[in-house]
Design goal:
By secondary structure, this protein is of the alpha/beta class. The protein has helices at residues 13-40, 98-115, 167-185, 195-198, 224-229, 231-246; strands at residues 73-78, 119-123, 137-144, 157-160, 212-219. 33% of the residues are buried.
């Protein structure tokens, strides 16, 4: 049937009914789409992402389920720094000064520890901060004599205080250093510990709850190639020992 145009603006009933049904269908369709869309979207809106917050970011708020951040602190005493030069090698052996060797190794150790997320205090021999120093560990770094000692003039030493207030912690720190340092550097352990090491002044100055040890990294005569030409290896040995202690890593039976 052909629909005639009405000059008075009136539409045939069949056309009016079709438009009415179409309008109802459109409204229903919009309602259904809207309901589905807003049910699927998060409450923050369509595709909204805050530039100031990303999943997993710490906002400083406490939600009860977050693990508290543990801050580790280690003190490194640079043997003889700020006091004297320590042992000195003759010019024929390079004229090396112990304090320079100690500082280089300690500073590299500081860098390696910081890369592991550890806070490090680089301390002088008689640093004011040693009085009551509180930390997870304190290690004093030294080098041994430059005198030539046949056969026995090579190796490293580690000692703790005679009257250590935390013997178990200090013993484990020593064990970790002994195991990791010897393995990484290849040096033998020298058991000839002197009273100067076990009675080291810093042991009585730091807080009693701070486990402290002293390490003689090697002899400046027969071990000088390692100490002066490869201090990074020495520092990595010390770092590995400290991280073994801080992380409570296993120590091999050897």
């Amino acid at each position: 049937m052909k629909i005639q145009y009405d000059p008075n603006g009136k539409q045939p009933q069949s056309r009016l009914l079709a438009k009415t049904l179409k309008g109802i269908l459109n409204v229903s369709l919009v309602a259904v789409i809207s309901a589905t869309l807003f049910t699927a979207l998060p409450a923050t809106g369509i595709g909204f992402k805050s530039p100031l917050f990303q999943p997993g970011q710490n906002t400083g708020e406490s939600f009860g389920s977050e693990t508290p951040v543990v801050t580790l602190r280690v003190g490194l005493v640079v043997g003889h720094w700020g006091h004297d030069v320590g042992a000195i090698c003759p010019e024929s052996l390079g004229g090396f000064r112990e304090v320079d060797i100690n500082y280089t190794i300690a500073d590299l150790t500081r860098q390696y520890l910081q890369s592991e997320g550890v806070n490090v205090d680089l301390l002088k021999e008689f640093d004011e901060q040693l009085t009551g120093y509180k930390g997870d560990a304190l290690i004093s770094i030294h080098a041994d004599t430059c005198e030539y000692i046949p056969e026995l003039g090579t190796g490293y030493k580690i000692a703790e205080a005679v009257d250590n207030k935390r013997p178990e912690q200090a013993a484990r720190l020593m064990a970790c250093l002994n195991n990791r340092y010897g393995s990484i550097t290849g040096l033998r352990y020298d058991h000839r510990i002197t009273p100067d090491m076990t009675s080291y002044h810093a042991f009585s100055e730091v807080d009693p709850n701070t486990p402290a040890v002293i390490i003689e990294t090697g002899y400046m005569n027969q071990d000088r190639e390692l100490l002066t030409k490869n201090p990074s290896l020495v520092a990595r040995g010390i770092t590995a020992g400290i991280m073994c202690y801080l992380n409570r890593e296993e120590i091999s039976p050897e």
